[in-house]
Amino acid sequence: MKKPTNDQAVYREDLYGTHAEVTYSGILSFLRRKYTHDLKNADVAVVGIPFDTATTNRPGTRFGPRSIREASTQIGWAQLDGWGFDAMDKLAVVDYGDCDFDHGRPQEVPARIQEYIAEIITQDTATLSLGGDHFVTYPILKAYAEKFGPLSMIHFDAHSDTWEDEEGRIDHGTMFYHAVQEGIVNPEQSVQIGLRTYNDKDWGFNIMNGPWVHENGTQAVIDRTREIVADNKCYLTFDIDCLDPSYAPGTGTPVIGGLTTNQAQTILRGLAGINLVGMDLVEVAPAYDVGDITSLAGASLALEMLYIYASNPKRG
Fold it and tell me: For the whole model, what pTM was predicted?
C-alpha cells in the first residue's frame, strides 16, 4: 500500500518538519501535527481547553479549540514568511487533544485544568493552550508557577482582567487579580497590551493600552515590553478581543479601537528571543465569526507564538 501523504496527524513518524496537505479534508489537529499523548520527544504540546462558563457576556468559546484547529490547516503547509527559519524544524510539536473535565461539576474544573497542564510540563514539554474563555489561563499559570516560580506575563487583551473579586469565584475578568494576590505573576515585570476598558486599579502592571499603541507604534511596544520583561521567565497570553472587532468579530466581549492583525503580528515578531516558557490563545467564539476570520487570526497568532518559543536561546 502506498504510504499516505495526507492525515499526518495520524501517520507522521517524525515530529519535526513541515508537510503540505490538502486544506479542506483530513483530521483537524493543530497545524496537522501528530495527535499523541506520548511526550517523550515533544518540545511543545498543543492543548485545547473548551471551557466557557466563566464568561460574562456571550458564551461559545468552548468551540474555539476546534475552530482554531480547522483554520490552522490553511497555514500549516509551509514555514512562516519573514522569520528566516521553520519553527517546525527546531521544535517537535504535537497536538495533545483537549483537556477533559466534567461540565456538571464546574467547581472542579480549575483544578482539573491545572492538573492537566502540570502533567505535561513536568515532562519538560511546554504548552500552547487554545481556549476557551480567558479564565483558563489562571489554572495554567498556577501549574507553571509551581514549576518555575513567579512569572512575568505578557498579556494582550481589550480588558485588564484584574477587577477585584472574592476568593474562589470563577470569572474570566478577575483571574489576574487573583494571580497577583497569590504571587503567581510579578506585575512589575509584566505588561498588558491593547487594553481599552476602564479599571481604576492596575495592581502594579505596566499597561500600554489601545490608544497608547496606536499613538506610539509597534516598535515602542516591543522596546518597552522587552525592557520590562527582560530575561525573566515569562508566559504569553493573547485574548483575541485585543484585536479590533473588524479583525476578530468572533469573540464574547468585543471592544472597538483595538489592534489590527498586522500590529499584533509585528509586536509578536519583535519579541523573538524572549525567555518564553508557555503561551495561550483564548476567547475565540466561532458562532459570532464572519468567514472564519477570527479563527484564522487565532491560529495565525498562535503559530507566531511557536516561532517565539523556537527562537528562545534558553529553551530547554
Answer: 0.95
